[in-house]
Amino acid sequence: MTLDKEASYAIASWERFDEIVTDDLLRAVTSAFVIVAAADGDLARAEADRFLQLLRTHEALFAPLNLDHAEPVFRDLAGAVFSDPPAGRKTALAIIAAVADNDTYCELVRSAAEIALTADARRLDAEQVMLNEICKTLGIVNRFELTDNR
């Protein structure tokens, strides 16, 4: 894909996400999971499976969402982040910031990001950096803070 096609794909993917997912919490959880899971440049099947498991575990919170449509939306959004990483991160962080004033939502978003960090049984620095950025955006402490004392 050329740069223009990648940017167009990313924009269209975010627009589809905006149309399909209207709940602020679900938008923030999805955004957090995607940018952490995709931070290493790959989206493993295990990561997508963990995301869907997360949605099913909290199905009552996300009742308006048709979970049958969740995986394609999630994968499309990951594709948007891969196509234009800087814009994807910026858009996702803006969506996440929209729930920063709700402590319960902040914890759910952080939990989603932490699950993404460990979903493929690898904790990579790029994913950790994104988790740090999400926590900073929410104004909360990152329990998995990247340190020199690993």
In short:
With 150 residues, the chain is mainly alpha-helical. It has 7 helices and no strands. It has one domain.
Provide an overview of this structure:
The protein has helices at 3-20, 24-37, 45-57, 70-83, 85-97, 103-118, 125-138. It is an all-alpha fold and 150 residues long. It has one domain. Helix 1 packs antiparallel against helix 4 (70-83), helix 2 crosses helix 4 (70-83) and helix 6 (103-118) packs antiparallel against helix 7. It is globular, with a radius of gyration of 14 Å. It starts with a helix and ends in a 12-residue tail after the last helix. The model has no long low-confidence stretch (mean pLDDT 81).
Contiguous low-pLDDT stretches (5 residues minimum) are none
Can you count the helices?
7
- Look at the helices and sheets and give the structural class: mainly alpha
Mean pLDDT: 81
How would a textbook summarize the main sheet?
Answer: none
What is the 3D shape? globular
What string gives the helices and strands in order? HHHHHHH
Defining traits:
mainly alpha; 150 residues; 68% helix; 7 helices; 0% strand
How do the strands and helices of this protein lay out in sequence?
Elements: H1 3-20, H2 24-37, H3 45-57, H4 70-83, H5 85-97, H6 103-118, H7 125-138
